[in-house]
Design goal:
alpha/beta; Rossmann fold; 2 domains; 6-stranded mixed β-sheet; 4-stranded antiparallel β-sheet; 14 strands; elongated; binds adenosine-5'-triphosphate; ABC_transporter-like_ATP-bd
Length: 293
């Protein structure tokens, strides 16, 4: 799926500015950005819930239309199940609505309820489920028609660790089947672990796209040096140390890290000494605060 130069304004407020990215078949793509950056707006445009002012969303070389959009599995941020309808009934209904036969719809519903661990709630009204279980049902709703693309708006928010694992595995499995999967999240450690590629959006523009390793090449590596029993300020006089945050040291480009190691050995017992690439959270901070954009 390709998004090309999508722009969107609400009134005279521009919220997306020529935004573009691509999610290949079988790719798990993490879409991250600060609150209000434009993630939900982008996903709504992909789904056709909102119209872009300009730009295009393509799948298989052609612009998405009514028919191809029906093959997308979507988990909207506002969720949007019918609160008073029973879980099983609702999922069968949604699968039927998107073109599955009654038999297939029932079978897919049973399978997904089982797999997502909510089979015993099949006869309950959605509103009577806990928030996390409603979310599992919401994921089932995005999956029961066997979608060709998955677009999920913050699918992990509010889930307990077990549910996070279940959700993660489902997303991995779907992408392994060849489905392009896009999801937004503020849980960057999770995004870093799970995604093939990540896109960072700021003020409606894509400011960084790539694998975590590619993004890390643009970030600053720091040296982790953990010394036990060392006096405070042991590293203050080491040449080339630009900054220190706990056990993490930023060195000048021409510094020799062996100077720091020698000082550490002289100061106490060195427990750890290694270069550390920036985490996605650190890269994100750099990019959204604009320092390294
Ligand atoms: N219906 C609307 N009318 C006017 N402005 C809107 C509307 N919907 C969203 N916005 C504005 O568009 C911008 C982008 O919002 P959007 O919901 O896409 O961000 P987001 O990245 O999903 O944020 P979050 O992480 O908080 O969910 C925000 O400034 C928001 O206030």
């Amino acid at each position: 799926m390709t998004l090309e130069r999508i722009s969107k304004s609400y009134g005279d407020r521009r919220v997306l500015e020529e935004l573009g990215f691509e999610v290949g078949e079988g790719e798990l793509f993490g879409f991250v950005g600060s609150n209000g950056a434009g993630k939900t707006t982008t996903m709504r445009i992909v789904l056709g819930v909102l119209a872009a002012d300009s730009g295009e969303v393509r799948w298989g070389g052609a612009p998405l239309d009514e028919t191809t959009r029906r093959t997308i599995g979507y988990m909207p941020e506002e969720r949007g199940l019918y609160p008073k309808m029973k879980v099983h009934e609702q999922l069968v209904y949604l699968a039927r609505l998107r073109g599955r036969s009654a038999r297939d719809a029932r079978r897919a519903t049973d399978e997904w309820l089982e797999r997502l661990g909510v089979a015993e709630r099949r006869g309950d009204e959605v509103q009577k489920l806990s928030l996390g279980n409603q979310q599992r049902v919401q994921l089932a709703a995005a999956l029961v028609h066997d979608p060709e693309i998955l677009v999920l708006d913050e699918p992990f928010s509010g889930l307990d660790p077990v549910a996070v694992d279940v959700m993660s595995q489902v997303l991995r499995d779907k992408s392994a089947e060849g489905v392009p999967v896009v999801f937004s999240s503020h849980q960057l450690d999770l995004v870093e672990r799970l995604c093939d590629r990540v896109g960072i959006i700021r003020d409606g523009r894509m400011v960084a796209v790539g694998t975590t390793a590619e993004l890390q090449e643009h970030g600053e590596a720091r040296l982790l040096c953990r010394v036990e029993d060392a006096p405070d300020g042991w590293a203050d006089a080491v040449p080339g140390v630009l900054a220190r945050e706990g056990d993490l040291f930023t060195l000048a480009p021409d510094a020799d890290e062996q100077d720091l190691l020698r000082a550490a050995l002289a100061a106490g017992r060195v427990r750890e000494f290694s270069w550390r690439r920036p985490t996605l959270t650190e890269l994100f901070r750099d990019v959204v605060t604009g320092e390294k954009a």
